[in-house]
Design a protein that fits this description.
Length: 461
C-alpha cells in the first residue's frame, strides 16, 4: 500500500495530462491504467491510429488523382495492407511509449491494472489498496450499443475493429455519419472499398454548421462515398462472412437493406465507468451514464471526474484541458476550462473544423450577427495543392464585431482554426483578425479574408 496526494484512474488524454501536470505542481501522483500501453482510446485505438491510416490513404489518393497533373508519372503504388497496419502500430507505439517516458520524467507512478474505489480515499489495483487525498475518475468512454446489432469486431465492428481489419473489404456499410463514420469511411473509400454511410438524420454531421455539412457531403460523394440519409438502422444480420443492414426511411417508413462485407457501427460513445464501484460509493450519476460533477467534484468528498466520463463533447482535447484544470485545483489553485472555445475537427480531406456558435444556434437565440465568408478558391496556396474547395465562415456580433464562431471546410482547417480560438479567448473582434498580418501564401489567409468579409469585404473574392 502506498500513499499519494492524487490517484488518477485512467491513462488517456484526460488522465495522463492530469497526472503529469499534478506532478509538475509538486504532488505525489499515481495513474492507474489497465491497458498494456498508456494513452487510452485516443492513442491506442482512436485519434492516433486513425490519423496514421488517414495520412497513408490520403497520399494514395493524391497519387491517383493529382500526381499526373503535377508531372509525376508512373504507376500507382500497390497497397500492402499488413505493412500499412505495421506503420500504424509504429505510430501508436511511438506515442504511447512517449507517455511512459513522460511519466518517468515527471515521477508519476503507473499502477498497472484496473482500479476500483472500495472506499472514499482508497483505490484498489490488483490485491493492493492505495490511499490518496484526491481521486480522479478519468476512465473515458466506449462505443455505445445499437439495438438489434451485435458487434463481433470482425464483420460487425466498432472503430476499434475497423482500425485493425485483416484485409481491405470490398464493401462496407457505416452506420452513423458522425466523426468516426466519416473519417474511417474515408480511409476505406480511398483504399477502394465501396462505402455506404447510413445516417438517421437528413444531413451528415448533425449539429455542425449546415453549410459546412452540405459541402462536406458533396465533396465526400465525389470521393466515392454513398449516403443514405434519414434512415434509422433496424438491425444487422450476419451470415458467414457477410452482413445485411436493414433500415427504415424516416419520411415514409419504407424498409430496405444493404449487403456488406463489413459493417462499422459509429453511432456514438458512452461513458465507461463500469467496475469502479461507484454505485456502492453512492456517486451521483446522470441519466446518460455520466458522473455528475460540479467543477469536477462528485458528491463524494475527494472524488472527482473529468473527460468523457462527464458531460460535454467527447473530445481528447476537452479531457486534456479538464485534466490541467483538475491538477490545478488539487494543488490548491483555480482551475478553469472555457467551454465556449473548444474546437472540433474532422480529419477528412478536406478537413472540417469549427469553434463557438453555429449560425443555426445564433438564429435560435435571436442574437444579431454578421457573416464573413471566404472561399478557398480565392486562396492561392489552396489552389496550388488542389484544395480550392471549401470556405471559412466567420460569425461576429452585428453590433460589437466580437467573434462568436468559426466554421471551416478546407485544407489545414484543423490547424488554422486555432488562430480563431486564440482570438475568441481574448474576446477579439473580426477586425482584430483582419488587421493581423498573415503570411502569404498560407491557408490561414482565408481566415483573414473571412474577417475582412465581416467588414468592407474580402480582397480576393
Ligand atoms: P457521433 O455522435 O459523432 O455520430 C453518430 C452518428 O450516428 C450521428 O450522426 C447519429 O445521428 C447517427 N445514428 C445514431 N443512431 C443511428 C441509427 N440507428 N441509424 C442511423 N444513424 C444513427 O458519434 P461517433 O462518430 O461514433 O463518435 C463518437 C465520439 O467520438 C464523438 O463524441 C466524437 O466527437 C468522438 N470522436 C472525435 C474525433 C475527432 O475529434 N476527430 C474522431 C473520432 C471520434
Amino acid at each position: 500500500m502506498a500513499d499519494f496526494d492524487a490517484i488518477i484512474i485512467g491513462g488517456g488524454p484526460g488522465g495522463y495530462v492530469c497526472a503529469i501536470h499534478a506532478a509538475q505542481l509538486g504532488l505525489k501522483v499515481a495513474c492507474v491504467e489497465g491497458r498494456e500501453a498508456l494513452g487510452g482510446t485516443c492513442l491506442n485505438v482512436g485519434c492516433i491510429p486513425s490519423k496514421a491510416l488517414l495520412h497513408a490513404t490520403h497520399l494514395l489518393h493524391e497519387v491517383h488523382d493529382n500526381f499526373e497533373k503535377m508531372g509525376l508519372m508512373g504507376g500507382a503504388p500497390v497497397v500492402d495492407w499488413a505493412k500499412m497496419q505495421g506503420y500504424k502500430q509504429d505510430v501508436v507505439n511511438g506515442n504511447t511509449k512517449g507517455i511512459e517516458f513522460l511519466f518517468k520524467k515527471n515521477k508519476v507512478t503507473w499502477l498497472k491494472g484496473w482500479g476500483t474505489i472500495p472506499a472514499p480515499g482508497q483505490v484498489k489495483v490488483g490485491d493492493e489498496v492505495h490511499s490518496a487525498r484526491h481521486i480522479v475518475i478519468a476512465t473515458g468512454s466506449e462505443p455505445s450499443a445499437l439495438p438489434g446489432v451485435t458487434v463481433d469486431e470482425k464483420v460487425v465492428v466498432t472503430s476499434t475493429g475497423a482500425l485493425a481489419l485483416t484485409s481491405v473489404p470490398k464493401t462496407m456499410v457505416v452506420i452513423g455519419a458522425g466523426v468516426i463514420g466519416l473519417e474511417l469511411g474515408s480511409v476505406y473509400a480511398r483504399l477502394g472499398t465501396q462505402v455506404t454511410v447510413v445516417e438517421y438524420f437528413d444531413a451528415i454531421t448533425p449539429g455542425m454548421d449546415g453549410e459546412v455539412s452540405k459541402s462536406l457531403e458533396r465533396i465526400l460523394k465525389k470521393q466515392g462515398l454513398k449516403f443514405v440519409l434519414g434512415a434509422a438502422v433496424q438491425g444487422v444480420f450476419v451470415a458467414g462472412n457477410a452482413a445485411k443492414v436493414s433500415y427504415k426511411l424516416r419520411k415514409n417508413d419504407a424498409e430496405a437493406s444493404l449487403d456488406a462485407d463489413v459493417v462499422l457501427v459509429a453511432t456514438g460513445r458512452k461513458p465507461f465507468t463500469a467496475g469502479l464501484g461507484l454505485e456502492a460509493l453512492g456517486v451521483e450519476m446522470l441519466p446518460r451514464g455520466q458522473v455528475k460533477t460540479s467543477h469536477f467534484a462528485t458528491n463524494v468528498p475527494g472524488l472527482y471526474a473529468i473527460g468523457d466520463a462527464t458531460p460535454g463533447p467527447m473530445l481528447a482535447h476537452k479531457a486534456e484541458d479538464e485534466g490541467m484544470a483538475m491538477a490545478e485545483i488539487m494543488a490548491g489553485k483555480a482551475g478553469h476550462v472555457n467551454y465556449g472555445v473548444i474546437p472540433g475537427v474532422i480529419y477528412t480531406t478536406p478537413e472540417v473544423a469549427s469553434v463557438g456558435a453555429t449560425e443555426e444556434q445564433l438564429k435560435e437565440t435571436g442574437r444579431a450577427y454578421k457573416v464573413g465568408k471566404f472561399p478557398f478558391m480565392g486562396n492561392a496556396r489552396a489552389k496550388a495543392v488542389f484544395q480550392g474547395e471549401g470556405f471559412v465562415k466567420l460569425l461576429a456580433d452585428a453590433a460589437t464585431d466580437r467573434i462568436l464562431g468559426c466554421h471551416i471546410i478546407g485544407p489545414g482547417a484543423g490547424d488554422i482554426i486555432h488562430e480563431v480560438c486564440v482570438a475568441m479567448e481574448f474576446g477579439a473582434s473580426a477586425q482584430d483578425l483582419a488587421l493581423t498580418c498573415h503570411a502569404h501564401p498560407t491557408f490561414s489567409e482565408a481566415v483573414k479574408e473571412a474577417a475582412l468579409a465581416c467588414g468592407l469585404g474580402a480582397i480576393h473574392a
